[in-house]
């Protein structure tokens, strides 16, 4: 992976250019959704990072432990 900084109109570095080697089939599939596959890759990375930050330290291996199961509405087995 190669990276290079690009500068905006004000001269400050606003974006970083990253070079990736991708499967041509994947690029063709991305091109079906957008004219700019780099935008789709950027959005996918943002979404992935967002889910990683919400998953906590243990991630998918940890679950919330409920002490009691929820009680169904009256009329099912709760008569």
Task: Describe, in plain words, how this protein is organized in 3D.
The protein is α+β, with helices and mostly antiparallel strands and 79 residues long. It is built from two helices and two strands. The longest helix has 18 residues. The protein is elongated. The N and C termini lie far apart (63 Å). The mean pLDDT is 75.
Assembly type: single chain
Number of strands: 2
Low-pLDDT parts are none
Tell me the fraction of residues in β-strands, as a range: 15-25%
Figure out the total of helices.
2
State the end-to-end CA separation. Answer: 63 Å
Any chance you could write out the topology, listing elements then pairs?
Elements: E1 2-7, E2 13-19, H1 24-33, H2 37-54
Antiparallel strand pairs: 1-2
Keywords:
two-stranded antiparallel sheet; 79 residues; elongated; 2 helices; 2 strands; 16% strand; alpha+beta
């Amino acid at each position: 992976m190669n990276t290079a900084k690009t500068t905006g109109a004000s001269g400050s570095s606003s974006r970083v250019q990253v070079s990736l080697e991708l499967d041509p089939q994947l690029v063709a599939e991305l091109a079906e959704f957008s004219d700019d596959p780099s935008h789709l890759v950027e959005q996918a990375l943002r979404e992935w990072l967002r889910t990683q930050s919400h998953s906590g330290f243990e991630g998918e291996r940890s679950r919330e432990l409920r002490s009691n199961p929820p009680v169904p509405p009256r009329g099912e087995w709760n008569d």
